[in-house]
Amino acid sequence: MKYILLMNGTKDMFEWYSKWPKEDLQANIAFMRDLSQQLKDEGVLVATEGLAFPSEAKIVHAGSDGSPIVTDGPFPEAKEFLAGYWIIDVESAAEAYKIAARVSLAPAPAGTPGTMPLEVRQVMSRAPEEWTS
Amino acid sequence: MDVIVQTGNFAIEHLLRELTPQVLGSVVRRFRDFAAAEDAVQEALLAAAMQWPREGLPTNPRAWLTQVAFRRMVDHIRSESTRRRHESDVALEIPQSTSIESAQQEDDTLVLLFMCCHPALTPASAVALTLRAVGGLTTAEIAHAFLVPEPTMAQRISRAKQSIKNSGIPFQLPTMDERVQRLRAVLHVLYLIFNEGYTSSIGSSLQRADLSHEAIRLTRIVHHLQSDDTEVAGLLALMLLTDARRRARTNSAGELVPLLEQDRSLWDKEQITEGVALISVTLPKGSVGPYQLQAAITAVHDEAARAEETDWPQILALYDLLRRMSDNPMVALNHAIAAAMVNGPMKGLELLDSLKTDSRLANHHRMDAVRAHLLEIAGDHELAVEHYRAAALKTSSLPERYYLLTKAARLSGND
Question: pLDDT value at position B98?
Fold first, then answer.
């Protein structure tokens, strides 16, 4: 079963992150890099990416002739923005939760309350189950 | 190490895959190092794939492959012992001919299967290792079939080999006491491979790595080696009878077509004939198990020329037997459907109510899907729509979600 672990953040969190001291940033980046390698070595990683900051986002929709109409910024009504994701292939939801907890342990500056929450969603499979027989 | 054994020559590829477990068996038996032997055999396969199409088949292809793999093993051991700066205690002579009895070769295939399907491995690892070591598929093909990156699959296989090494599982047939239980583990892995291939065949071409055909091929081998085991025969029949419907399972738009609405002229008659013959000679032998019963049920469906001609009382009787033998909640659900077809939808709904206490089913989308189906038959379309939608929200299968939402839309007049 494939699951996607989504790391979301509010605008404030992205701004806060951009102001982290160098040592904290380096510790965080090293942690993420090691974790990706571990998940690869464990044979469960399908894909992982970090996203550019939401301030760089564009909103695109099709104009009447089908050409893209582009406006700056993320959806203004959105409260949370995707920062990055991991797609993993595991045997159960419980295993996906365990890996999410590992991601959640990513180090942050001293005094930061709590750990980072992850949203865990199952990726739809192309396999249907048989109906009868 | 991974190689793509693609020669463009189907006969050679077929031969190589057939010989893979036999050669691997010989090498593991000789050198006692499964992980290294597996790599050595992959190298031998690559050498064969490059040389044979150009230079023609050797007189004894198996001996050729075995010798090349032996040489690779010797190289491997030499470099290892150099690295470790001590002498290896393994004698390094290469046998000039492998005049091993064919019974030994067959045993080796079986031992390999028992090893790859060892209960110590997770199902996903056992599946991957079996496909590679016994099926002779490359890591790239297995990764492609399971939609994961190749390095991820390579790690999964390498960890599985490591687990076997660490657990010290000996390269020999399990004792007679263990045999039955271990054979069940092998059948379960083959069943998983089949199911993965069968259920995900929609809209994707798996090329040579067609998992359900691979599962059938491997199950045929086990059936050949253990022809007295009725459950092996039952599983082979089940696969043949299920796979026979493959072309009718989806329509031209790629949508799922449920069994009772399938165009039966698209079913593979030859495969049905073979499956029915196999289960017919197997059932009277007396040792009836869940695979045989599932095959028998599938045979009853496959033998009905039209859905309306389905012998539901017989199917219900078979599900009654199966329920006594299997605690599988899906069996309980299918039993309720059969009961509804024989005794009316109300009887089926009653049975569903009695399953509510099963925690494995309580929040399962199929519970809602079956309830919706039975409510639809009973004529309560409003409630059926509600349950079709509830099932659609819970399923993790995309084709199933489309199917359930379409059903809900049609019944509620949004067609």
Answer: 46
How close is the nearest chain A Cα to the Cα of B345, in Å? 15
Residues B329 and B341: their CA atoms lie apart, in Å, by: 19
Nearest Cα neighbor of B124 from A90, A94, A67, A68 is: A90
pLDDT by residue (tens digit) across B136-182? 888 888 888 888 899 999 999 999 998 888 888 888 888 888 888 89
Instruction: Tell if the CB–CB gap between B203 and A43 is shorter than 8 Å.
Output: no
Alpha carbon distance B411, B168 (integer Å): 58
Rounded Cα distance between B104 and A86, Å, is 47
pTM for the full model? 0.84
In what helix (H) or strand (E) does residue A121 lie, and over which residues does it extend?
A: strand A119-122
- What is the spatial distance between Cα B359 and Cα B355, in angstroms, rounded to a whole number? 9
- Chain-chain contact of A42 with B151 (C-beta, under 8 angstroms): no
Task: Grade residue A66 by pLDDT with cuts at 50, 70 and 90.
Answer: very high
Query: B-chain residues within 8 Å CB-CB of A44?
Result: 152, 156
ipTM of this complex prediction, to 2 decimal places: 0.78
CA distance A66 to A60: 11
